[in-house]
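hi support,

uploading two proteins for the ticket. first:
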Amino acid sequence: MRLEDEIQQFRFRNEHQKLLINLFYTYNVLSSKTQDILKASNLTMQQFNILRILRGQHPNPATNNMVKERMLDKNSDVTRLVDRMVRDGFVTRTSCETDRRRVDISITEKGLKALQTIDLKAKEMDTIAAGLTEQEARIFNEMLDKLRSGTK
């Protein structure tokens, strides 16, 4: 459905304004669908992102700074998120033996199993973008990269 019909706004200042509103609106739609999938594993999108990062590091630990650098949402409070994930048993936090100032974060077996469960729903997650062909998705990825490069 067209953006104009979805949000009942039929005039925009220009195509750039419409694009930004369309991106924000689409992000919220996609985010909501993704959160519905993650809800079954009792994870938020930020927690899922942290688990993905830690699985990529596994079996090596990560630091708060490394996780923060790789997060999709750069405004996330990694310390608070990791605190909750430690409490829920998805990750562990230990002091580094070689550098007492450094704290290592590692994914637990429970965290790996949660990701395996989500991986089984990969097709369901892929259907979120199924309205695009593989070629369209590639072009769209290139366009988004180009759009982001204009913000730096």
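and the second one:
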Amino acid sequence: MIFQDPYASLNPRMTVGEIIREPMDIHNIYDTKEEREKRVRELLEIVGLKPDHIRRYPHEFSGGQRQRIGIARALALNPQFIVCDEPISALDVSIQAQVINLLEEIQKELNISYLFIAHDLSMVKHISDRIGVMYLGNLVEVGPSDDVYHNPLHPYTKALLSAVPIPDPDVAKQRKRIVLEGELPSPINPPSGCRFRTRCPNATERCAKEKPKLMNVGENRQVACFLYEK
């Protein structure tokens, strides 16, 4: 896993080498300490850091460098699947691009799959092959990245995408923003039936009584909305 906060996710009392080596120590990967240290240096190079950083402590690095250390730790056990929990939201915009490019390079070189959790919709489209949209802890739409962005189905997905900034003023003026009314319900005490119904412009009485399930609506597309029942 790659955590959201590059400052809180690294033990300040451990060196970079100890942080990256810890998963190997716990799971008994490699036979000797020398082999593990060699692997740590390799991982530092993979994430764009210098091998001699192995003796330094987290406070000696910037936020972007700390997140690279977190990525190296996630790679320590040669995983096939990594959970990226908002891995760039705490970083400056210029650093975000560097970390995303690094993740893409690692994905191609090591053939790794990511579950990329984020609220930055532009970044989600850039890095994702498939997208799942959630509302109050429930998946409301799933599909290929291009399909979800160019042809959103669920009312919540449509509202989300209408709020994405567009760098072209002329195009932005022509686009209609969908503004949701009402307050966001409490996740602890969600509405009955469809959790989005209290803010949905298409809600019916049925939405208050039944919870829609994800249903197939074409090739590789799923949506949880009664509007698409056949």
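thanks. also noticed: Strands lie at 81-85, 113-117, 130-135, 138-144, 215-216, 222-223.
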